[in-house]
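call fold target=DUF1957 domain-containing protein
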Amino acid sequence: MEKGYVALVLHAHLPFVRHPENSKYLEERWLFEAITESYIPLLRVFHRLLQDGVDFRLTMTLTPTLLSMLSDGLLLDRYRQHLILLIRLAEQEVIRTRNHPEMNRLAHFYHERFVLTLEFFDAYNGNLITAFKEIEDAGKIEIITSAATHAFLPLVNREQSIRAQIETAVQLHKTILGRAPNGIWLPECGYKPGIDGILKDYGLKYFFVDSHAFEAASPRPVFGGYAPVLTPHGIAAFARDRESSKQVWSSHEGYPGDYDYREYYRDIGYDLELEYIAPYIHPDGIRVNTGIKYYRITGKGDHKELYNPEWAREKAAIHAGHFLFNREKQVEYWFENMGRKPIVVAPYDAELFGHWWFEGPIWLDLFFRKMHYDQHTVKAITPSEYLREYPEQQVCRLPMSSWGRGGYADVWLNGRNDWIYRALHKAEERMSQLADRFTEANEVEVRALNQAARELMLAQSSDFAFIMDNKTMVDYAVKRTKIHINRFTRLYESLMAGDVDTEWLAVIEMRDNIFPDVDFRLYRTGRHHETLSLQRRRRFPSVLMLAWEYPPLTVGGLSRAVYDLSRHLTEKNWEVHVVTFRPEGTREYEIMEGVHVHRVDVLQPDGDEFIHWAFSLNLAILDRCEQLYEQGLRVDLIHAHDWMVTYAAKTLKEKYQWPLVATIHATEYGRNQGIHTDLQRYIHHMEWRLTYEAWRVIVCSPYMEREVKTIFSLPQDKIDIIPNGIDGDKVQPHGDSSVLREQYAQPHEQIVFFIGRMVQEKGVHLLLEAIPEILQACPQAKFLIAGRGPMLAKWQNDVKESGLSEKVMFVGFVDDETRNHLFHLADVCVFPSLYEPFGIVALEAMAAGVPVVVSDVGGLSDIVNHGEDGCKMLPGDPHSLAVQVIHLLKDPHFSEQIVMRARKKIERQYCWETIAEQTARVYERILSECALQLAEKEVASHQERV
């Protein structure tokens, strides 16, 4: 049985080059050379492997531009003529070299090769896409897509433009290949946060990044690059393996540079007399590669010996065996350390195989044969197959990254090509402007708008920026970029002026004929909201939730509470729309686990003008809600969470007559043990206003019920107590937590863990005061403190001055996955809060199986029964905290009993399904009371008229 897998990925891509106006363009030869030297040789390898019963797996990108060219009749006709010319040249070479036996043997070799290539091409009537589909239908390769024109997505400015690139690509893939792609090759492996959510919207399951993206991920992947990770939006990311990539890819350190392999740079198109070679190169006498090369690499100098195909094949066999041996050792090592089968991801440009590395297809053929016949340790696999075998993966946030020099877009943004982005970004803005303006376009306008979309996408090709950086064919790259931008600009101006030149439009439609089904409406602002018009015919009740934070933004417990409540309400057949703040890297709109999430942009003011920021947030929420209303959104009621959204909630209630329910998660009075400043007084007033405007007020604990009744003078019958809940699955780590332990503690140390905001009310200072007493009784204790906030620097300094730095570690902000691992590693969790309306983090620790010590205040006091499912400390008392922690550390049996009873309690009382049901009943009660009130008003009005 295999111990691991290797995923070979070939990225087949060429920029869209099609010049019907002139057959002399050298750049069309890029396609011709790739077909002759890479695509058909690879297809022939696949055919032989199938015929011989050799099992193999390969993932292969066929980019939208390449698919378009491979299905273009003009280009395929020109290619066939090109191939016939090569056969004639090879025939001439057989004659010319007849007195040189070794070279003549090579001339015959090339002649036979070109003839077989033509036979293969004609056997499929020029339709190589069908040949690839046959291999995929046989289950041996998986064909994936890329962005429409291979745009470098991190430098695309507008979300609509990224969506247009992805949606166009997916639709073309479906049209040409007959099925939706599972994966995508992000052009140049270019990724930035937020792209993953867009990929998810179009049904894509995975993508690839370079290895350093995993190294800089948060948290760092437990299995390194030997397993995929899930992004926050649930898309799998696979990392390129450095070692396997370099062995094949590098012409200096890797196999392609071997002296027995064919020398790429000695071609008869350059070596022979111009008079002889002229009929077979560019009509203007420009020398080009013909593909006939007689020499091997030989050495580093200019002297070259004749190429020997037999020697090259023997060397390819050695290298295939060497590559397989190294993958076996990788797999064996990581299998023992991971407890699961690792995957080694080895991606390459497909054109490397055959074009740049002539023996590449032979090497690939031999590699699969050796894997099939000679060993059972490593097996080839596709990413989709691996994800089916291992559906559960670690969740990580990946940074912006790319492959290429520097690893962070340097190739595509530097002094040689940066000028293009100002023009591209302006064109993006104008394209959305056109799409928004022309809601009812006539036939000519639709043609012009669609052509404008084509021109913009073609200008966005990353290939042109790469060529400018690489200093090859720079004039062509600059010319192409300017041509497409200029055509786009002319279309824009003519559409805005209402004067489209139909003759000129027909000409450029003929020249840039890519994506015949492109739809300019892809660029409409908020196009992904258009489905909201269906709300007019909705079948389920709906609620509009307003909350300033929502995942992935998580500052406190509010974010998780709103997230869990909203997604569980959808399971109760409620349609939920959440309007919230939009942090960097997130999307304006998405559907998260059935919840419609709408995010608004608000610029943070300079200084500490928090109140002004909150007011700006409310204005932005109002604007978005009004847009949604215009697009057809109708809801039954509003649910506002805390004072930060009071103004927006009150205004929407009055404007649309939607009843309002409010949840008070905490109060300013409670946080500060009174109201002492003007800022606190303002916040207190906004909290009161929200409870005053609300039809009903929800609080999370009996403690909070007593608090809001007292400080807001609320009547008892206006308040509902519904606790926050916990989803046990959300606090379970992926992978082995012990792998992370060495980062935080020695094997013999017992971990005491705190997580929360670094503010006075969370009581971290009490924990710090208790540590010396705990260490005296339990010297093996180690204290981990996670979180960030205004008190962090002070408390770090306190620890340093007390000499406890070796025993206390401030780990800063941790994401959910790291938090789950730390819960799993902890022996005790402590929450010594001075004020805690509920205490969701204590529930999370209890659900994770950690005994807790909590302060006997607020909601924590309601959650924990002392000595049964947790331990309580006297509020504000470090000695009391120390006593409880010592008891739990010294009595493992007592701790186990605490954990067992805590889990049963959570399953019984704090299940989100139950909480969502309770909330839905509050909603239904409000709607019934509203309906009754409306009916009473109508009766009263009728009686008054009578």
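return ok
Residues 912-945 form the longest helix (34 residues). The longest strand covers residues 4-12.
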